[in-house]
Protein backbone atom coordinates (compact mmCIF):
# COMPACT_ATOMS: atom_id res chain seq x y z
CA UNK A 1 0.00 0.00 0.00
CA UNK A 2 3.02 2.31 0.29
CA UNK A 3 3.90 3.59 -3.18
CA UNK A 4 6.80 5.98 -2.50
CA UNK A 5 10.13 6.00 -0.66
CA UNK A 6 9.40 6.56 3.04
CA UNK A 7 11.35 8.30 5.76
CA UNK A 8 12.54 4.96 7.11
CA UNK A 9 13.63 3.87 3.60
CA UNK A 10 15.74 7.00 3.19
CA UNK A 11 17.13 6.74 6.72
CA UNK A 12 18.13 3.11 6.22
CA UNK A 13 19.66 3.91 2.83
CA UNK A 14 21.80 6.58 4.51
CA UNK A 15 23.20 4.11 7.04
CA UNK A 16 20.90 4.96 9.94
CA UNK A 17 19.14 2.30 12.00
CA UNK A 18 15.35 2.19 12.14
CA UNK A 19 12.74 0.54 14.34
CA UNK A 20 8.97 0.11 14.40
CA UNK A 21 6.55 -1.05 17.06
CA UNK A 22 2.89 -1.50 16.04
CA UNK A 23 3.43 0.86 13.11
CA UNK A 24 0.55 -0.75 11.26
CA UNK A 25 1.40 0.24 7.69
CA UNK A 26 4.64 -1.79 7.85
CA UNK A 27 5.01 -5.55 7.59
CA UNK A 28 8.50 -7.06 7.26
CA UNK A 29 9.87 -3.94 5.59
CA UNK A 30 13.51 -4.63 4.63
CA UNK A 31 14.50 -1.09 5.60
CA UNK A 32 13.35 -1.52 9.24
CA UNK A 33 16.23 -2.77 11.37
CA UNK A 34 14.24 -3.85 14.46
CA UNK A 35 10.52 -4.50 14.69
CA UNK A 36 7.82 -5.70 17.05
CA UNK A 37 4.71 -5.55 14.93
CA UNK A 38 1.00 -5.13 15.45
CA UNK A 39 0.90 -8.95 15.32
CA UNK A 40 4.36 -9.76 16.65
CA UNK A 41 6.23 -12.77 15.31
CA UNK A 42 6.99 -15.09 18.27
CA UNK A 43 10.22 -16.04 16.49
CA UNK A 44 11.20 -12.44 15.74
CA UNK A 45 14.45 -11.15 17.20
CA UNK A 46 12.85 -8.54 19.47
CA UNK A 47 10.16 -10.94 20.68
CA UNK A 48 12.85 -13.50 21.56
CA UNK A 49 14.87 -10.86 23.41
CA UNK A 50 11.83 -9.72 25.39
CA UNK A 51 10.78 -13.25 26.29
CA UNK A 52 14.32 -14.01 27.39
CA UNK A 53 14.41 -10.87 29.53
CA UNK A 54 11.05 -11.68 31.16
CA UNK A 55 9.34 -8.62 29.65
CA UNK A 56 6.58 -10.69 28.03
CA UNK A 57 5.60 -14.35 28.08
CA UNK A 58 5.81 -16.76 25.18
CA UNK A 59 2.08 -17.38 25.53
CA UNK A 60 1.26 -13.67 25.32
CA UNK A 61 3.19 -13.24 22.08
CA UNK A 62 1.76 -16.40 20.52
CA UNK A 63 -1.81 -15.36 21.38
CA UNK A 64 -1.38 -11.60 20.99
CA UNK A 65 -4.45 -11.08 18.78
CA UNK A 66 -6.72 -12.40 21.53
CA UNK A 67 -5.40 -10.02 24.19
CA UNK A 68 -7.12 -6.90 25.55
CA UNK A 69 -6.01 -3.76 23.69
CA UNK A 70 -4.84 -2.11 26.94
CA UNK A 71 -2.58 -5.09 27.59
CA UNK A 72 -1.30 -4.89 24.00
CA UNK A 73 -0.40 -1.22 24.44
CA UNK A 74 1.57 -2.11 27.59
CA UNK A 75 3.51 -4.77 25.66
CA UNK A 76 4.09 -2.50 22.67
CA UNK A 77 5.40 0.17 25.04
CA UNK A 78 7.69 -2.36 26.71
CA UNK A 79 8.96 -3.40 23.26
CA UNK A 80 9.68 0.18 22.20
CA UNK A 81 11.45 0.92 25.49
CA UNK A 82 13.49 -2.29 25.13
CA UNK A 83 14.59 -1.42 21.60
CA UNK A 84 15.55 2.10 22.68
CA UNK A 85 17.59 0.89 25.67
CA UNK A 86 19.24 -2.07 23.96
CA UNK A 87 19.58 -1.01 20.33
CA UNK A 88 19.40 2.82 20.32
CA UNK A 89 17.85 3.28 16.84
CA UNK A 90 18.22 6.56 15.02
CA UNK A 91 14.52 6.50 14.07
CA UNK A 92 11.80 4.83 16.15
CA UNK A 93 8.19 4.66 14.91
CA UNK A 94 5.80 3.73 17.72
CA UNK A 95 2.00 3.47 17.66
CA UNK A 96 -0.58 2.97 20.43
CA UNK A 97 -4.12 1.72 19.79
CA UNK A 98 -6.19 1.99 22.99
CA UNK A 99 -7.63 5.43 22.21
CA UNK A 100 -8.75 4.40 18.73
CA UNK A 101 -10.40 1.24 20.05
CA UNK A 102 -12.12 3.01 22.94
CA UNK A 103 -13.46 5.87 20.82
CA UNK A 104 -14.85 3.43 18.25
CA UNK A 105 -16.62 1.56 21.05
CA UNK A 106 -17.87 4.39 23.26
CA UNK A 107 -17.43 7.55 21.17
CA UNK A 108 -15.13 10.56 21.44
CA UNK A 109 -15.41 12.92 24.41
CA UNK A 110 -16.66 10.18 26.73
CA UNK A 111 -15.20 9.32 30.12
CA UNK A 112 -13.80 6.14 28.57
CA UNK A 113 -12.03 8.19 25.88
CA UNK A 114 -10.49 10.70 28.29
CA UNK A 115 -9.40 7.85 30.57
CA UNK A 116 -7.69 6.21 27.58
CA UNK A 117 -5.84 9.47 26.89
CA UNK A 118 -4.52 9.51 30.46
CA UNK A 119 -3.44 5.88 30.08
CA UNK A 120 -1.56 6.65 26.87
CA UNK A 121 0.12 9.70 28.40
CA UNK A 122 1.61 7.22 30.87
CA UNK A 123 2.92 5.07 28.01
CA UNK A 124 4.57 8.11 26.44
CA UNK A 125 6.19 8.84 29.81
CA UNK A 126 7.65 5.32 29.78
CA UNK A 127 9.20 5.97 26.36
CA UNK A 128 10.69 9.25 27.56
CA UNK A 129 12.13 7.43 30.57
CA UNK A 130 13.68 4.77 28.30
CA UNK A 131 15.34 7.49 26.22
CA UNK A 132 16.74 9.05 29.38
CA UNK A 133 17.96 5.67 30.66
CA UNK A 134 19.72 5.08 27.34
CA UNK A 135 21.51 8.43 27.67
CA UNK A 136 19.91 9.68 24.47
CA UNK A 137 17.76 12.54 25.81
CA UNK A 138 20.06 15.44 24.79
CA UNK A 139 19.92 14.42 21.11
CA UNK A 140 16.41 12.98 20.85
CA UNK A 141 13.40 14.67 19.27
CA UNK A 142 9.92 13.50 20.26
CA UNK A 143 7.16 13.93 17.67
CA UNK A 144 3.69 12.93 18.86
CA UNK A 145 0.99 12.76 16.21
CA UNK A 146 -2.35 11.13 15.47
CA UNK A 147 -3.48 10.14 12.00
CA UNK A 148 -7.09 11.30 12.38
CA UNK A 149 -9.66 12.80 14.69
CA UNK A 150 -12.98 11.19 15.63
CA UNK A 151 -16.68 11.87 15.25
CA UNK A 152 -19.66 10.74 17.30
CA UNK A 153 -21.96 8.28 15.53
CA UNK A 154 -25.71 8.17 16.22
CA UNK A 155 -26.92 6.19 13.19
CA UNK A 156 -25.31 3.55 10.98
CA UNK A 157 -25.87 3.08 7.26
CA UNK A 158 -25.70 -0.46 5.82
CA UNK A 159 -25.52 -0.08 2.00
CA UNK A 160 -24.85 -3.80 1.57
CA UNK A 161 -28.30 -4.38 3.04
CA UNK A 162 -29.64 -2.12 0.27
CA UNK A 163 -27.71 -4.18 -2.29
CA UNK A 164 -29.30 -7.31 -0.82
CA UNK A 165 -32.75 -5.84 -1.36
CA UNK A 166 -31.76 -4.91 -4.93
CA UNK A 167 -30.62 -8.46 -5.71
CA UNK A 168 -26.95 -7.48 -6.02
CA UNK A 169 -25.70 -9.83 -3.31
CA UNK A 170 -26.77 -12.92 -1.40
CA UNK A 171 -26.62 -13.57 2.35
CA UNK A 172 -26.39 -16.85 4.26
CA UNK A 173 -26.62 -16.87 8.07
CA UNK A 174 -26.28 -13.10 8.15
CA UNK A 175 -23.11 -13.00 6.02
CA UNK A 176 -22.65 -12.07 2.38
CA UNK A 177 -21.76 -15.24 0.48
CA UNK A 178 -22.09 -14.15 -3.16
CA UNK A 179 -22.13 -10.69 -4.65
CA UNK A 180 -22.09 -8.68 -7.82
CA UNK A 181 -21.43 -5.43 -5.94
CA UNK A 182 -20.01 -4.96 -2.47
CA UNK A 183 -19.29 -2.00 -0.19
CA UNK A 184 -16.22 -1.58 2.02
CA UNK A 185 -16.62 0.91 4.87
CA UNK A 186 -14.01 3.38 6.06
CA UNK A 187 -16.34 4.85 8.69
CA UNK A 188 -17.39 8.24 7.38
CA UNK A 189 -16.74 7.25 3.79
CA UNK A 190 -17.15 3.99 1.90
CA UNK A 191 -16.12 2.51 -1.44
CA UNK A 192 -18.36 0.45 -3.73
CA UNK A 193 -16.76 -2.26 -5.89
CA UNK A 194 -18.14 -4.48 -8.62
CA UNK A 195 -17.09 -8.04 -7.75
CA UNK A 196 -17.83 -9.51 -11.18
CA UNK A 197 -17.08 -8.05 -14.63
CA UNK A 198 -19.14 -4.92 -15.31
CA UNK A 199 -17.91 -3.72 -18.69
CA UNK A 200 -21.07 -1.79 -19.51
CA UNK A 201 -21.43 -0.30 -16.00
CA UNK A 202 -24.92 -1.68 -15.50
CA UNK A 203 -24.17 -3.19 -12.07
CA UNK A 204 -22.76 0.05 -10.73
CA UNK A 205 -25.74 1.90 -12.17
CA UNK A 206 -28.04 -0.47 -10.27
CA UNK A 207 -25.94 0.02 -7.12
CA UNK A 208 -26.18 3.80 -7.44
CA UNK A 209 -29.96 3.54 -7.87
CA UNK A 210 -30.18 1.36 -4.73
CA UNK A 211 -28.19 3.95 -2.77
CA UNK A 212 -30.04 7.04 -3.93
CA UNK A 213 -32.18 8.59 -1.21
CA UNK A 214 -30.85 6.50 1.68
CA UNK A 215 -30.93 8.41 4.97
CA UNK A 216 -27.52 9.65 6.06
CA UNK A 217 -25.69 9.44 2.73
CA UNK A 218 -24.41 12.91 1.92
CA UNK A 219 -22.79 12.39 -1.48
CA UNK A 220 -22.39 9.61 -4.03
CA UNK A 221 -19.06 10.48 -5.63
CA UNK A 222 -18.22 9.36 -9.18
CA UNK A 223 -14.60 8.56 -10.19
CA UNK A 224 -14.48 11.74 -12.26
CA UNK A 225 -14.71 13.71 -9.00
CA UNK A 226 -12.14 11.68 -6.99
CA UNK A 227 -9.36 14.20 -7.62
CA UNK A 228 -11.33 16.93 -5.81
CA UNK A 229 -11.08 14.76 -2.68
CA UNK A 230 -7.34 14.23 -3.13
CA UNK A 231 -7.93 10.62 -4.19
CA UNK A 232 -6.39 8.71 -7.11
CA UNK A 233 -8.34 7.62 -10.14
CA UNK A 234 -9.40 4.02 -10.63
CA UNK A 235 -6.80 3.83 -13.42
CA UNK A 236 -4.02 4.98 -11.07
CA UNK A 237 -4.94 2.67 -8.17
CA UNK A 238 -6.70 -0.69 -8.20
CA UNK A 239 -7.69 -0.03 -4.57
CA UNK A 240 -10.21 2.63 -5.56
CA UNK A 241 -13.88 1.71 -5.85
CA UNK A 242 -16.26 2.48 -8.67
CA UNK A 243 -18.18 4.81 -6.35
CA UNK A 244 -17.34 6.58 -3.09
CA UNK A 245 -19.96 7.50 -0.50
CA UNK A 246 -19.70 10.21 2.14
CA UNK A 247 -21.78 10.27 5.32
CA UNK A 248 -23.66 13.14 6.89
CA UNK A 249 -22.82 14.36 10.39
CA UNK A 250 -23.79 11.77 13.01
CA UNK A 251 -23.76 8.87 10.54
CA UNK A 252 -21.19 6.23 9.60
CA UNK A 253 -21.13 3.29 7.20
CA UNK A 254 -21.13 -0.41 8.08
CA UNK A 255 -20.45 -3.45 5.90
CA UNK A 256 -23.38 -5.36 7.48
CA UNK A 257 -25.46 -7.02 4.76
CA UNK A 258 -28.65 -7.88 6.62
CA UNK A 259 -31.37 -6.16 8.60
CA UNK A 260 -32.35 -2.52 8.25
CA UNK A 261 -30.51 -0.28 5.81
CA UNK A 262 -30.22 2.45 8.49
CA UNK A 263 -30.32 1.82 12.25
CA UNK A 264 -29.34 3.43 15.55
CA UNK A 265 -25.67 2.98 16.48
CA UNK A 266 -25.02 0.69 19.45
CA UNK A 267 -22.14 0.29 21.89
CA UNK A 268 -19.15 -0.82 19.88
CA UNK A 269 -19.84 1.59 17.01
CA UNK A 270 -20.45 4.97 18.67
CA UNK A 271 -17.42 6.66 17.14
CA UNK A 272 -15.81 6.68 13.70
CA UNK A 273 -13.19 8.31 11.52
CA UNK A 274 -12.58 8.08 7.78
CA UNK A 275 -14.64 11.17 6.96
CA UNK A 276 -13.51 13.69 4.35
CA UNK A 277 -10.35 15.48 5.46
CA UNK A 278 -11.94 18.94 5.42
CA UNK A 279 -14.13 18.02 8.40
CA UNK A 280 -12.67 20.01 11.35
CA UNK A 281 -13.38 17.15 13.77
CA UNK A 282 -10.94 15.03 11.78
CA UNK A 283 -8.05 17.37 12.58
CA UNK A 284 -5.32 15.56 14.49
CA UNK A 285 -2.65 16.09 17.14
CA UNK A 286 0.88 17.39 16.53
CA UNK A 287 3.45 17.94 19.30
CA UNK A 288 7.20 18.24 18.76
CA UNK A 289 9.71 18.59 21.60
CA UNK A 290 13.36 18.06 22.34
CA UNK A 291 16.50 18.26 20.24
CA UNK A 292 16.27 20.78 17.39
CA UNK A 293 12.83 22.11 18.36
CA UNK A 294 12.21 25.72 19.36
CA UNK A 295 10.46 26.05 22.72
CA UNK A 296 7.07 27.77 22.96
CA UNK A 297 6.15 27.83 19.27
CA UNK A 298 2.46 27.27 18.44
CA UNK A 299 1.30 26.37 14.95
CA UNK A 300 -2.29 27.24 14.04
CA UNK A 301 -2.29 24.24 11.74
CA UNK A 302 0.01 21.98 9.76
CA UNK A 303 -0.37 19.22 7.21
CA UNK A 304 0.38 15.56 7.80
CA UNK A 305 2.48 15.54 4.62
CA UNK A 306 4.83 18.06 6.31
CA UNK A 307 5.85 15.50 8.95
CA UNK A 308 8.24 13.36 6.94
CA UNK A 309 10.33 16.19 5.39
CA UNK A 310 10.54 17.91 8.79
CA UNK A 311 11.71 14.75 10.52
CA UNK A 312 14.15 14.10 7.69
CA UNK A 313 15.71 17.52 8.29
CA UNK A 314 16.10 16.67 11.99
CA UNK A 315 17.89 13.44 10.99
CA UNK A 316 20.17 15.30 8.58
CA UNK A 317 18.42 13.75 5.58
CA UNK A 318 16.46 15.05 2.62
CA UNK A 319 13.28 13.65 1.12
CA UNK A 320 13.13 14.55 -2.56
CA UNK A 321 10.09 15.14 -4.76
CA UNK A 322 7.62 15.51 -1.88
CA UNK A 323 4.46 17.61 -1.65
CA UNK A 324 5.06 18.52 2.01
CA UNK A 325 7.46 21.12 3.34
CA UNK A 326 9.92 21.37 6.22
CA UNK A 327 8.29 23.16 9.20
CA UNK A 328 11.21 25.54 9.56
CA UNK A 329 9.29 27.76 12.01
CA UNK A 330 9.60 25.12 14.74
CA UNK A 331 13.26 24.22 14.12
CA UNK A 332 16.24 25.69 15.96
CA UNK A 333 18.58 27.57 13.63
CA UNK A 334 16.11 27.89 10.78
List the helices and strands and how they pair.
Layout: H1 7-13, E1 18-21, E2 34-36, H2 45-52, H3 58-62, H4 69-87, E3 91-94, H5 98-106, H6 111-133, E4 141-145, E5 151-152, E6 155-157, H7 159-165, E7 169-172, E8 175-179, E9 181-185, E10 189-194, H8 202-211, E11 217-221, E12 243-247, E13 251-253, E14 262-264, E15 271-272, E16 286-290, H9 307-314
Parallel strand pairs: 1-2, 1-3, 6-13
Antiparallel strand pairs: 4-16, 5-15, 6-14, 7-8, 9-10, 10-12, 11-12
Walk me through this protein's architecture.
Helix 4 (69-87) runs parallel beside helix 6 and helix 5 (98-106) runs antiparallel to helix 6. The chain folds into two domains: 7-149 and 283-330, 3-Layer(aba) Sandwich (Alkaline Phosphatase, subunit A), CATH 3.40.720.10; 155-280, Gyrase A, domain 2 (2-Layer Sandwich). It has helices spanning 7-13, 45-52, 58-62, 69-87, 98-106, 111-133, 159-165, 202-211, 307-314, and strands spanning 18-21, 34-36, 91-94, 141-145, 151-152, 155-157, 169-172, 175-179, 181-185, 189-194, 217-221, 243-247, 251-253, 262-264, 271-272, 286-290. The chain is globular, with a radius of gyration of 22 Å. It has a four-stranded antiparallel β-sheet with strand order 9-10-12-11, with helices on one face. Strands 2-1-3 form a three-stranded parallel β-sheet. It is built from nine helices and 16 strands. It has 334 residues and is of the alpha+beta class. The mean pLDDT is 95. The two termini are 34 Å apart. The protein is 29% helix and 19% strand.
Amino acid sequence: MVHAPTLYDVAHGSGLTTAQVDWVAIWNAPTVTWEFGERPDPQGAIAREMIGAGLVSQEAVENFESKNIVFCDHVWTAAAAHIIREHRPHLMMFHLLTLDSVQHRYGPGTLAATSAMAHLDGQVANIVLAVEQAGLAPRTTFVIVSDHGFKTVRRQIMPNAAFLKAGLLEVTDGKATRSQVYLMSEGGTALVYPTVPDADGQLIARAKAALTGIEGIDTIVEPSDYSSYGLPSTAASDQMGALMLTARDGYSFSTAAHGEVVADATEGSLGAHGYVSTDPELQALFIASGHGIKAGVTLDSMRTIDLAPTMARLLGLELKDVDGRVLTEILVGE
